[in-house]
Design a protein that fits this description.
Length: about 725
């Protein structure tokens, strides 16, 4: 093993822990084949470690390490199962409770606020203190702060361990189990007792509010604390499409520069290096706490502290060992982190930078050294993040390398400037003076990031599947991680590249020929998005005057669609078509809009003048809508749409109201049925193969708790 790979005990312990977590994850998700493959691979690696790669002089040492590796594998598997079992047993059944809880997070929404509540005490069907947190939607405006304890009455709906047809890692890891919603008038503020970290966040937030304009404040808050929830969705999307949204996730970029400044400040103070390292480590840890102990901030803090300790002891710093140590600490405390996109991106990018920066920089040795090294860092980060971005977000940015080369050096300076200006401005109440430069720099950032349509540089709709494994193996082989000769590297990389390309072609061919149906519901819109081959359709079952497009945008990003061929507005409600279409066009272009109801010639004329490229069609012109791969017909006064998607009989309901409805006309034998109201009675009557409720349901999968629910028909 020494010949093939340098033995790093901390790395192999981290890999063992990750293997255990992943094996349990596959079992929970009923991916038995992957669980067996991973478990068998781990067992084979242990056997090889004890036989082929062990000499007589190292047998005792390697047996001890093998036991340690197996122990960490079992710890990882046990922790996932224990956490998941506890999460699923904490159901409250959607009943009404009197709740008293503390606000630990505040985010603005289009209709009010989204709060995260902890230390909740309930009275109702059950009485007592909740272990898990509550996600509370507040409609309307009310002055709320971190650390305040509030009381209200609401139905507490249970979250499941599946969200958007994936493992609900974020909620499980953050211990958020319940959904609820109330109006602002129903909330009573009981008391305010923010903890140390919350006080620091409030201090930073208030200083930024006093020193920055309203449009620049969210950018400053996101840059310093990683909280981007106050940013405009369109603006945040522009940063994402440009490939620089990572500046709003406190990571090595932030921690590294803060540590650098602290080292300079402590340089002239005559105290032992070990004491300096401890003080800097505590400051960085405190800052990580202000940023809610995100995985990226903890990872960067641990790696920085390990580096400083190595320097103080005169030892060589090993980035892979430091990275592995930080992974072990984080995953022992919270094993669900491994399944979170933030953790995956943070560690993948760090690993990529460690492994590939030097090899890539050598390819650009004809350039100045600093430029070559910068290219090495940016390209290595991009290479290791692409598979995760494609899986999690459905796309990656092709222009991010160029933008990051120009943007990151500037952001690094701006970050330090803004951090110290915020602290000084808050302490001496002169934030409007100290943050004056940052305010105009953020204005410039926002202007430049919205000046171009970076969405055109997005590549999406590609599924890597198992090909991602070979993608990373190729990167590891070419990086020099394995001790192989050039000829062996070339042969192995070529073979794996052929396997990777072949598997990607097969997977994407299957993906292209399958109909992807996303059922989405938020407070302001309930809709079903159908993407099939070269045409797509958006069926809107319910919509408010002003509605959120964020979930629709996520669905379209996963399918790489930039245009909607058909929009179908079902009956059962009224909507201002001009306002509706204007909002929809902020996401994509539209070809046809079908609407139900009496013909409104004046409205049609206004829409035609405003949107000359969009064809507006009334349902009553044709009861069977001319939509390719669907050809639906309406029933029950335009309240139900019935058609076949990939030869699967589908019914999509709009608002039915309280009046009794005769469901006989809609037929029988449905493969998919999606209901808005009265879902449980309708779905229990028809028992379709796939039964989905837009709104809360205690029996059927619902799109409020589960996000964009994906149904695939092949």
């Amino acid at each position: 093993m020494k010949k093939l790979l340098n033995f790093r005990p901390i790395l192999f312990i981290a890999l063992s822990l990750c293997c255990g977590i992943c094996s349990a994850y596959f079992l929970v998700n009923k991916s038995l084949i992957w669980a067996i493959v991973l478990g068998a691979s781990f067992l084979l690696a242990i056997i090889l470690f004890l036989t082929v790669f062990t000499s007589k002089t190292l047998i005792k040492r390697n047996v001890i390490f093998a036991v340690i590796f197996i122990a960490f594998f079992l710890i990882g598997a046990f922790n996932i199962n224990w956490n998941l079992d506890r999460y699923n047993r904490a159901n409250l059944g959607g009943r009404n409770y009197e709740v008293t809880a503390k606000i630990t997070d505040i985010k603005e929404s289009e209709t009010g606020y989204k709060l995260t509540l902890s230390n909740a005490e309930i009275k109702g069907n059950r009485t007592g203190k909740l272990y898990y947190k509550i996600s509370l939607l507040v409609y309307g405006k009310i002055d709320l702060e971190l650390g305040e304890t509030i009381s209200f009455s609401a139905n507490l709906y249970d979250k499941t361990h599946i969200y958007e047809d994936r493992f609900n890692t974020n909620d499980i890891e953050k211990k958020i189990k319940y959904n609820a919603s109330v109006s602002a008038s129903q909330i009573i503020i009981v008391k305010s007792q923010p903890n140390f970290f919350e006080r620091a966040r409030i201090f930073i937030s208030n200083a930024l509010k006093n020193g920055l304009d309203s449009n620049e404040y969210p950018v400053g808050l996101a840059l310093l604390t990683g909280d981007s929830s106050f940013m405009d969705n369109d603006l945040l999307s522009s940063y994402r499409y440009a490939g620089v949204a990572h500046i709003f996730a406190v990571s090595g970029l932030h921690i590294g520069f803060l540590a650098g400044v602290l080292i300079l400040l402590f340089k002239k103070i005559k105290i032992p290096h070990l004491i300096k390292t401890l003080i800097i480590g505590l400051i960085l840890l405190f800052y990580s706490g202000v940023c809610s102990f995100s995985a990226s901030s903890i990872r960067a803090t641990i790696m920085t502290v390990v580096s400083l300790f190595a320097i103080s002891k005169g030892q060589r710093y090993d980035g892979i060992t430091a990275l592995s140590l930080s992974a072990i600490i984080i995953l022992l405390l919270s094993p669900m982190q491994l399944l979170c996109v933030g953790f995956q991106l943070s560690f993948a990018v760090a690993f990529g930078i460690i492994l590939l920066t030097k090899p890539i920089a050598k390819l650009f040795k004809f350039l100045p050294k600093k430029v070559a090294n910068s290219l090495g860092v940016v390209l290595s980060a991009q290479i290791f993040s692409i598979p995760i971005c494609l899986y999690a977000f459905g796309y990656f940015s092709t222009i991010s390398v160029a933008i990051n080369l120009l943007f990151i050096p500037i952001v690094s300076v701006v970050y330090i400037l803004t951090l110290f200006a915020t602290v000084l401005g808050g302490i001496f109440s002169i934030a409007s003076i100290t943050l004056f430069p940052s305010n105009y720099i953020f204005k410039l950032f926002n202007y430049l990031i919205t000046l171009f349509d970076y969405h055109t540089f997005i590549i999406g709709g590609i599924v890597l599947g198992g090909g991602a494994i070979f993608y990373y193996l190729i990167a590891f082989v070419l990086s020099g991680f394995f001790n192989l000769k050039i000829k062996a590297k070339t042969i192995i990389s070529t073979v794996m590249a052929l396997i990777m390309v072949s598997s990607i072609i097969v997977v994407n061919n299957l993906n292209y020929n399958s109909a992807k149906i996303y059922v989405s519901s938020a407070d302001t819109i309930s809709a079903t998005y159908i993407s099939y081959k070269d045409q797509n359709t958006l069926v809107v079952s319910d919509v408010n005057y002003v509605y959120s497009v964020s979930r629709l945008k996520r669905a379209m990003e996963k399918t790489n669609d930039k245009e909607i061929d058909n929009v179908v507005l079902l009956g059962g409600y009224t909507v201002d078509l001009q306002v509706f279409i204007t909002k929809l066009l902020s996401v994509c272009s539209v070809k046809k809009v079908f609407y139900y109801g009496e013909r409104q010639e004046i409205m049609e004329q206004v829409c035609q003048n405003s949107f000359p490229k969009i064809q507006l069609i009334n349902f009553l012109d044709n009861q069977t809508l001319p939509i390719q791969n669907f050809n639906p017909k309406t029933s029950l006064d335009g309240r139900v749409l019935i058609g076949e998607i990939s030869k699967k009989k589908t019914a999509i309901f709009s608002m039915l109201g309280q009046n009794p409805v005769n469901f006989t006309p809609i037929g029988t034998g449905f493969d998919l049925m999606i209901c808005l109201d009265r879902a449980e009675s309708i779905l229990s009557t028809y028992l379709p193969d796939h039964a989905i409720s837009y709104k809360y349901s205690n029996i059927y999968k619902n799109a409020v708790n589960n996000g964009n629910i994906l149904v695939k028909f092949t």
